[in-house]
Amino acid sequence: MAEPAPVDTDPAPPALPPGHLPPRPPYVGRLMLTGGLIVTALILIFTVGIDRGEDAADDGPPPPPPALPVPELKPPKGAVAPRVALAAPVDRPKASDEAALDEWSKKVAKTTQISHRTLAAYGRAEMWMRTEAPRCKISWGTIAGIGRVESAHGHFAGAEVGPDGRVTKPIIGPQLNGAPGVKAIKDTDHGSLDGDTEWDRAVGPLQFLPVTWGKWAVRASGDGKPADPQNVDDASLTAARYLCSTGGDLTTPDGWWNAVLVYNQSVPYAQDVYSGAQAYADASLRP
Predict the structure, then answer these.
(1) Torsion-angle region of residue 179: left (phi > 0), alpha (psi -120 to 50) or beta?
(2) Contact 184, 31 (CB under 8 A)
(3) Per the count of CB atoms within 10 A, which of 24, 60, 133, 271 is most buried?
(4) Residue 136 contacts by C-beta under 8 Å, 6 or more apart in sequence?
(5) From CA 70, how far away is CA 60, in angstroms rounded?
(6) Share of the chain residues as helix, strand and coil, in percent rounded to the nearest 5
(7) How far apart are CA 280 and CA 141, in angstroms?
(8) How far apart are CA 258 and CA 68, in angstroms?
(9) Which of 141, 94, 131 is closest to 236 using CA atoms?
(10) Residue partners of 96: CB distance under 8 A and separation at least 6
(11) Which residues pair with 6 in a beta bridge?
């Protein structure tokens, strides 16, 4: 898999079209490119939407609810794994128990402030990986931690996760064009995923490089259609498969850190994911 670029350190990046992620200085990752700036950006988006009050209804759907407060935790690399979140329902062989998953996601949404539709995608990934990679023991909280950092769970730049799991606006990262602080990665997908036939970009709510998506992508619905990185179900299950490909037990410190640092080779990034995973686990386990 091609290694993604260090992120552009230009303090005043050029404006990007809606749904295109701005570069983020701190992280130098392997899979993800734009990371935690999304969290900061979404705080501003949420605040603006809330302050507008009744006027917001005139311009389209209301903004998503304020994000769950996430304490910034910075455990040393390999020191500890995040708490395991409230388990997703038991899966049935070859068929997810959608009714139980829907009930579970609506319950967990109340305390985590993640939409129940997005939680269903995260929870389904945990459920299915119990069969596909039982030694992995991945918790949906880790996938949620990544989703928070990468796109605020698919809400970047006004996007929403639709009933079918697809984001209403494609989420696309910046060009990896060799600009200062950015490694050049020439187009690998003929623009089929990122719309760019010259340079690669990371795509979707979990920000995959096209080459990584091509290797690990899976269609969560099993309907025979191509996997879609802009679909939170497909992206969540693909992320879980990629994390579990390291072969570790993600309930252990070594297993968790090895997996997340394969996803993005940055300790600050992993600490941000850890912070979110821990916060969502704590919230989900509240009585």
Answers:
(1) beta
(2) no
(3) 24
(4) 129, 240, 243, 244, 247, 248, 249, 250, 255
(5) 28
(6) 40, 5, 55
(7) 6
(8) 26
(9) 141
(10) 124, 127, 128
(11) 28
Mean pLDDT of the chain: 81
Buried b or exposed e, range 267-284, using 16+ CB within 10 angstroms: bebbbbbbbbbbbbbbbb
Residue 141 · residue 200 · CB < 8 Å = no
Quick one: tokens of 228? 């879609």
pLDDT digits (tens, 9 = 90+) for 124-175: 999 999 999 999 999 999 999 999 999 999 999 899 999 999 999 999 998 9
Instruction: Map tokens 């459920």 to a residue.
Output: 127
Output phi, psi for 98, to 5 deg: -65, -35
> Could you tell me the two tokens for 89?
């329902």
* Residue located via tokens 């297993």: 255
How many helical (H) and strand (E) elements, i.e. helices and strands, does the chain have? Answer: 8, 0
What are the CA-CA distances from residue 84 to residues 126, 163, 256, 274 (Å)? 11, 27, 11, 11
Structure tokens at 216: 């690990």
CA distances from 277 to 9, 170, 272 (A): 27, 25, 9
Q: Under a CB-based contact definition with an 8 Å cutoff, are residues 161 and 118 in contact?
A: yes
